[in-house]
Predict the structure of Peptide deformylase.
Amino acid sequence: MRFILYLLLFLLPFGSKAQTYQQKIDSYRNEIKSKFEKDTFGPLRKENIGYLDYYTANENFVVQADVEILFGEKPFRMPTYDGTSNDYKRYALLHFEILGEKHTLTAYQSAAIFQNPQYKDYLFLPFIDETNEFETYTGGRYIELDASKVVNGKITIDFNKAYNPYCAYSSGYRCPKPPAENILQTHILAGEKAYKGPKNERPVNKAMAKNFTEKEKAIISSGDVSSKMHVYLNTDEKELAILKATSQDIKIDDPLLEILEKRMLATVQAPEHAGVGIAAPQVGINKNLIWVQRFDKAGEPFEFFINPKIIWRSKLTRLGAEGCLSIPDRRDDVTRSYVIRLQYWDKNGNVIEENIEGFTAVIFQHEVDHLYGILYPDRLEEQAANQKIELNEKLKFSIENGNIRP
């Protein structure tokens, strides 16, 4: 999210006291544009920055909010627009007035960065208002706050600094959906307007790939290439922490990659817990690597995928039973997209994309979820709150007699 790039900008004062408020906001926005221009792997191409559009600065949308700190809140998974989710915790209710009307928004802490001292005070404020879909981005907007700025139980919210999720400009980003409790029944005529330029595809930044950590090296090297690995279980607290962590891209030239590849295959094909797929976190390795059995190919081979990402998911979904090597003695019906578009690296570092459908697409979604720290029961919790329209009477699927695969 934008805080990583613009935290210093967010905290620094603007210019001289002689500046008007509009000039201060213009300066703030110009600095953001400058950051976009310099970021080769950012969501906006340099030639499209001119499409950024904003409301005129309006001090009526700078409000003082009463902060009601929330205690004992448990982390929850906030769905994202790419079909995954991120761990957040509700931090505080912010009560304020805009143009004489009372409103409340919830501020959140990101579980992924809360442990980092640099971001311990970072608060995330996503919201939707009545301008969305018309004048502003359909998926809502974001504001960033600093918990250390709470003074006497109050904090300033400047809606003129509301900005679009990166998903407004480009595919390939995991932008959180504002929760239902953060829908405002008013028009926030401030901040960034809808982006109307061409939508980009997020470039692959191979420089972000990492080698295995020392701990991961020890795990990989603990057996020969034909020996299966210990499967991490959700019933063990330390192992669950690995399963719930977000994984990183791996460098293709890491000397232990081939060994891990073979050991993961031996693990998923072991007779005592044979499966149709396995992800590296399930053997204690937080790197983006999976094995998937390709039921959509002749011979139903297992295939190894390096740094896989699902960059598109169909709105059409299917319901089917799933189990997990890391969750013993449990099976449930989970809703998954019927078709996906997968992006991954081959062993030469080339970026490959392909469309996958049916049961094989389900396996890919299950395994890629592991790379984001998502277990399938997390999906059940999300889906319990969603409403679906049954298409059983509108569409008919069929399969040749004798084929047992869905």
Residues 3-201 form one domain. Confidence is low (pLDDT under 50) at residues 3-17. The helical segments are 3-11, 21-38, 214-220, 237-243, 257-268, 358-371, 376-384.
